[in-house]
Amino acid sequence: MLQTTPNSLVLTPVTSGRKAVFGLPKRFELPQEMRGGNAFADLHLFANFVKEKITAEHFHTNKILFCLEDDNLICKEYLHLPNKTKNLLAFARLEAESVLPDSVNDYLILNYEYGHINEMTGKLKSALFAVKIKLISELKKAFSQAGLTIVKISPPIFGMLSAAKKAIESRGQTIAVLDLGFEKTRLLVLHDGLPVFQRTFEAIYEDVIEIITLEKSVSVPEAAAMIQRDGLNGSTLSPDIAQKITTLMDVSANELVRNIRMVLSSERLELNRMIFCGAMTALPNFNEFWDQLGLDIPLESIRLHAPADSLPQLGGDAIKARLYPASFFTAGGMVTAKKSSQINFLSAAKAISGFRPANIAALALITMLSLVFMAIPTMTYYNKSIQVQQDRTALTDSRYNEVKQLLQQQAKQSAALASLEGDRKILPFGKSKTQEAAAQLWDQVSPKVLSVDTYTIDNVAGSIALSFHVTHYADFLTVKETIETNGYFTLAAPFTVTKSDKAYACSVTLKTVNFEAWASAGKGGAAK
Amino acid sequence: MNKPKISGVFLYLLGLGVVLLLFYYLALSPMTAQTQKLTLEHNQITAQLAQYDGSLQRTAELKSKISAMQTEINNRGSSTGVTIKNVAEDMEAACSQLELVPENVQIGEETADKSKLSSTGQPLCSASVILQVNCTDKQLQELLGYFESKSKGAYYVNQVVRANVSEDQHSAQITMTLYYFGSVLAK
Predict the structure, then answer these.
(1) B59-77 and B29-57 are packed helices; what angle lies between their axes, rounded to 10 degrees?
(2) CB contact under 8 A, B161 and A424
(3) Average pLDDT score, chain A
(4) Pairing of strands A463-470, A451-458
(5) Cα–Cα–Cα angle for B131, B132, B136, rounded to 5 degrees
(6) ipTM surpassing 0.90
(7) Which of A40, A55, A407, B19 is at a distance of 20 to 30 A from A73, taking alpha carbons?
């Protein structure tokens, strides 16, 4: 946990788990150029200084819980009518406009609703916390470059609000909680379990240290050790120093009391008790010193009002240094606050910086895909058009002229041949077979007969009427067998074989086997 | 009254959606159809160019092929060269090559069959032809062969009547139908 004062850096080792365990806070004097509230003037220098101290103290971690004090953020309480949580941020931005020196857009604004309703006005109270976006992003960047990771950036008052709401039982009562830290003094007024008012004041611790170092000519660590050992009014301090410290405390205490009374008056409340916590309360003789101030409001330790298990645990070195869990009341609240209710500027900055690029990236991706979806078919069409244009130009190339002519001629001739072939199919070319029939007749019949007298070839019916003479009847049978064996003709009944003087007169009808008459056979004009 | 706030991202996406929808219906669909047509045309032209390039390599071969085709066309074109007008000359040609003398030649009337048209739209015409000669069996076969395959006329032999006159000589009557396209008598 990192805390800053105008002149010091305070690093406290914290182990976070179900309960936060705090180690001994280490205080380092800032280098001269960073003092007087100039720690954030050069963030890289500051981050490197932090890193150097973490390494030197062997903290064995690079994670930083950054406490952003009031010096670097703006906090304002405001009243509003009951509204939805999401609308409160819009209210907060409106309210912020009245207190921010620059544009609201330059700030990260977070809202913390107290939940307490003013019985007179019926209004609720919230606190807005505003910090420059640039500061958060630069802090993150500088620490990251120094090898450190900031895990949370919160105002400590938020830790106090969170811890007090959870740990202090104030149902039906009005309680003022005073955190007297070394870095700041914080005041919180609770009524009926809910915050009513909060304010952060400058702590007097550093002023006390300064008085001692100047008066006693000791170093800051020596002055701090004296206070830790003897308290604010220890015997080692001269009456003059003690007086100065008392005056400082008196002024500070009176301011606190004045604020409390003002709130009580405006809210019409009556204070039941005031309880304290914080590092200064662990100093020796603190109670006696406070009593010496002579305030009319009694001060009680938080240990009496908060359950022990609601307070943070301490590590061994912190216990040895005589610190109490109450010293880390506010810090404990910062560590253990619920994530959903956190005032964390880091996550808020991440949400802003992460949301827009993510959206833009998604939209850019969708747009790109859409453009690709539109471009691909368009490009394809365009390329195809160009390609066909080129093809058409290539077709008109003069070197193809002769070939085109030849191919055209060839195509024409092919078509003409096809037409002729079609025409030829209509005509009887090759369909009339009488020469073949006459030749077959000559070959099969003539050698075996005395004479072929007559024959009539009917090329429409596929038949041949044949008359011939043979010497013997057996010769007719030979002719018949030859015809039947050959297979070109068949000898069909009726046939006649008649014996005359010296021979047999035969009259037969032959049928041509597989004869197919041409469709148009026998047609045509009659001969005159 | 509070005006409902509409997200810029939503408006952007809505606009983009509308643009895409319009693009789909107005541009993509016609473009896809056009692209398919262009692809088809490209393929056809590519094939044609390949054919041209191939033909360029063998122009001489192509020319000789065309010449051969022309010859075939000429030959086939003249295959129906015998019509009713010159059938008598064809009879004479048939007989003279076999040294025969036609005894009787009868040519019938021209008949047109308009249901059968040539590729040029001319009707199929026919006429009956009867040729009577005295010849040997061998000469008769050759005479039939002439009409069925050698002649430029398209004859269909319907009937052949052969009777003996002497031992070697026979009387043969060939009844045929001559076919050709286009009426020559009407011209």
Answers:
(1) 90
(2) no
(3) 85
(4) antiparallel
(5) 120
(6) no
(7) A55
The Cα A230–Cα A397 span in angstroms is 110
Q: CB within 8 A of A63, min separation 6: which ones? A: A148, A149, A150, A151
Q: Is B187 a residue whose pLDDT tops 80? A: no
pLDDT of residue B11: 87
Rounded to whole angstroms, the Cα distance separating B55 from B47 reads 12
Only one residue has tokens 């085709």, namely: B69
Strand A21-22 and strand A313-314: the pairing is parallel
CA angle A446, A450, A456 (to 5 degrees): 55
CB–CB contact A525 B70 (8 Å): no
% of residues, chain A, pLDDT over 70 = 95
* Residues B100, B92: Cα–Cα separation, whole Å: 9
Helix A329-336 to helix A156-167 angle (10° resolution) is 90
Position A284 scores a pLDDT of 81
pLDDT band at B1 (very low <50, low <70, confident <90, very high): very low
A303: nearest Cα among A285, A320, A321, A287: A287
* CB-CB contact of A107 with A133 (8 Å): yes
The pLDDT value given to residue A393 = 92
> What residues 81-100 of chain B have any CB closer than 8 A to a CB of chain A?
none
Query: How much of chain B, in percent, has pLDDT values that exceed 90?
Result: 55
CA dist., res. A10 & res. A196, Å (int): 29
pLDDT tens across A294-342, in order? 767 777 888 777 777 778 888 888 888 878 888 888 888 888 877 766 7
The alpha-helical segments, DSSP class H, found in A39-174 are: 43-56, 85-97, 133-145, 156-167
CA distance A417 to chain B (A): 6
Identify whether the C-beta of residue A440 lies closer than 8 Å to the C-beta of residue B92: no
**B49–A contact, CB cutoff 8 A:** yes
Residues contacting A197, CB < 8 A, separation 6+: A77, A187, A188, A189, A259, A263, A267
A153: β partners: A66
Residues A299 and A274: beta-carbon distance below 8 Å: yes
Which region, left, alpha or beta, applies to residue A178 given φ > 0 means left and ψ of -120 to 50 means alpha? beta
| Cα–Cα distance for residue pair A384/B45, rounded to 1 Å | 13
Phi, psi of A428 (to 5 degrees): -85, 25
The Cα A159–Cα A166 span in angstroms is: 11
Among B31, B116, B157, select the one facing A434 at the smallest CB separation. Answer: B157
DSSP string, B63-125: HHHHHHHHHHHHHHHGGG---TTTHHHHHHHHHHHTT--EEEEEEB--EEEEEEE-TTSPEEE
Contact assignment for A525 to B66 by CB distance below 8 Å: no
- Can you spell out the DSSP letters for A308-321? GGGSPEE-HHHHHT
In this prediction the pTM is: 0.54
What's the sign of the alpha-carbon dihedral A471, A475, A477, A479? negative
The confidence score (pLDDT) of residue A255 equals 85
Backbone dihedral region for residue A208 (phi beyond 0: left; psi -120 to 50: alpha; all else: beta): alpha
Asked if B37 has any chain A CB less than 8 Å from its own CB, the reply is no
Among A403, A425, A443, A464, the residue to mutate for chain B (most B Cβ within 10 A): A403
Q: What is the pLDDT of residue A353?
A: 65
Q: How far is A110 from chain B (nearest CA, A)?
A: 22
Which residue numbers in chain A have pLDDT < 70? 234-235, 293, 295, 340-341, 353-356, 520-528
